[in-house]
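Homework help thread (please don't just give me the answer)

Our assignment gives two proteins as sequence + structure token strings and asks us to describe the second one. The first is just a warm-up. Here they are:
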Amino acid sequence: MSGDYSRIRFQPGKHYQGVLRQQGRVELDADCNEYVDQQDRRLRTESLDVVGRCGVSSATPGAFQVQNLAGQLAVGPGRIYVDGYAAENHGADLQFNPVLEEQYGTSFLAVAAFPTGRSLVYLDVWRREVTHLQDPELIEPALNVDTTTRYQTAWQVRVMSLAATAPVTCQTPLADVPGWLARHSPSTARLTTTTVATAPESDPCLVAPTGGYRSLENYLYRVEVHQVTGAEARLKWSRENAHVASTVLKIEHAGTTTTLQIDTLGRDEILSIKDGGWVEILADRDEFAGGAGMIRQVTVNSDTNQLIVTPPLDSALFPGGPVDAAQHVRVVRWDQAGSGLTIDGLVKVTEGEPSFVLEHGIQATLDGLNGARVGDYWCFAARAAGSAIEQLEQAPPRGVHHHFCALAIVEADGTIRDCRPRFTALTQLGPSGLEAGVHVQSVKLVSGGPLENDNSVPVNKFAGGLVIACDAAIERDTVRNRPTCVVMLDLPYPLTESDTKLWEATLIGYQQIRLAADTDTNSKQITWSPTKEAQTWLTDHLFTVMAKQRAGDRVLAHLVLLGNFVWQAGNPEVWVDGDLFGMRAKAGEAFPTIGRWPSGDSRRGGDLHMWFWLTPPVVSPPPDTGTVTIKPDEAELAVNEQQEFLVSAEGADAATIKVSLEPSPGLGTLTLVKESKGLWTYSYRAPIKIEKPTTESIVAINLKAPKAPPAKAEVSLIFPRRQPPKSPAAAKKSASSPKAPARRKPK
């Protein structure tokens, strides 16, 4: 249905942002309606930019999820965004929703019979104009007049049969589904409106004697496609935007006629249904089916508000008796007239004769008939002042535009494959803008140290296993001894003497093996541990055989975590977003290509895949710990007091210093002052990296426990030896004359 409007002004190409009223001016409906259209487009474009063409929010993850409910096709409550329109299913079993402050469904809503063969289930969304004929509550009882109309986001779940062998999956674009374009391609119809140009009169009450728009009235014309058959279309038009309409209260069939009892013939003599005129009888079912109503010429009985139509209506579609108010059966006046109409009261246009005359010197031409759709309509204003009309030039239809989103594919055996695209609500995104998923923070060797992409690792260190650190707890059943976390090796082929002789080549490629391992998770950590047999093979046999066969001195290894099948503990809707992206280890150097942590690409789920190189085992000599002196070796500190400890190390050419703090870490912080590097601060029990050996350092403790009593704090440091020990003479000299460190007060 359409409303009583003076004209439609909105033009997106003008980029208007809003409408401003001026004092002392006449208020026009067109200005207010233009502002509504501006805001509607603003919201739709924003939704498209943020959500994309189609998506279900994580706020209502079950929205429009397809389910077989006792033989009925049912969809879950919630919202889905389709081309910027928010289609909402309020579902069944309504209960008060305190978030939205409204009644909202808590269970699935049955919408159709469940398909019996392989089918595509999809959502059809469009913008619908609603008047008081479809919603009587738009009439204010105190005034007994309809003051406004409404825009409604209408939707329907539709089913399209698929051939059993049709290569259609959830990833198939709808345009590539066999038969889709024949049913749902956008309209190609284009309308052009013209008149004979004339010079405008200065007196608005005078009409030019020839040409131009020849009427004293101002109208908003509407041209609408009623029927399409090949390259032929049949049209209807109205000079009042087809808003002259009435509700059908009762239907009586009698022989060759049908009598319609209607609510009103019209507002006045001009805006009323005329004797001998043409009307369309339709109900909501016609509109939601994408069709049109029945066109009939009427005989009017103005005393009883009855319309007599010939030929009679189909009694199966319009049964006799009082009309069910929920069907919203109505009659709409159309204004086409004259001898040029078809027998059913419509204007016929073809590719050979696409032009037709409406009235008062207005001519329209409809091109692109092969792709026209039932319900396509255009509006243009005509004004007596200036004898002009709003000229359209190859204008696309103003409506009705349908938008689609695949919901599911139902297989022949009844299996439902969910096709709904989903997105994460903005407030559920991580601090770096990452999607609400589980992200891999790092991968470490159990033997110590990080595992970086494209780096070399001694096989004996790798054989101890790997630890994958995540930023959320992992569901144990998705990892524990399942093939979701694997390490694979690319072994050179041929590797044995017999294969080398067979193929007469030393290297023709690589064969991949998956290492036997145990996998498990402990909260936020995933552990991968090779079996005892695999450890022995790695450390004792792999490189021994490769050296014997002269097959190289390193093996390419791959770590793969199937993030699409591993999810957060207690939350199966949040998967591991493991996509890892490479970067240069150092600026200006192409290799190695290390990974950029944490993982993730702001999409739902993703596999972690990184590679590294295994090298022959490295055997280190037993560490020889140097002598460490800490003064004082014990201190009693009050709250917020600070104590410096002088640490002296003899014979400790160390690259790593392990630091531990007692009592528990909750009492304070540990700082290490190094003369050449300034002040460094570290977490408890974490390794402290020092680029060059040092023999003296200063350690400071600052307790931060507002309610804690004075506590004793002890500091212990271990300096593992990395270089041969000094000679006894050098050690004696160093011990007899230690160099005092330059003291700096920690920041």
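The one we have to describe:
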Amino acid sequence: MKVKILLGLIVIAALAVLLPQMLHAKTVAKLHSKLPDLVVSTMEVKSIGAVKNGKVTILYTIKNQGKTISPATLTRISVGDQVKGVTISHPTPDLQPGGSYTGKVEYTASEGKKYFIQATADYKNNAFETNELNNGNSMYFSFGRILHQ
């Protein structure tokens, strides 16, 4: 009889510990699926005016692929070659689920160089998101003829 009571107490103690954790995990999973999710969905580089002046516009699109509205955030854009570059922050307005915002950055490139662009949505992690690891996108572009490096 004492063994049955002892086993019963062990089961009750285990349930007292595990049940709240299981309920918490389900609640977190349910809340997590209802968060916004910001991604850099597209990036594009366009020449401005005459090709020889080296001015380009970098267009980037931030999309909320989550289930709820995203608050206004900051997007970080870094562009440069192997020697020098620039990093700037651009505001991104709040976005409805499925909504997007296209921003632009102007940059002056030199002919014959390869450039790297990286865009990161919500780079300060101000928005709680479904996935915090999918906020970035990157690409290379060149202006004019590429010189072998």
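TA reply:
I won't write it for you, but here's a hint about the kind of observation we're looking for: The helical segments are 2-32.
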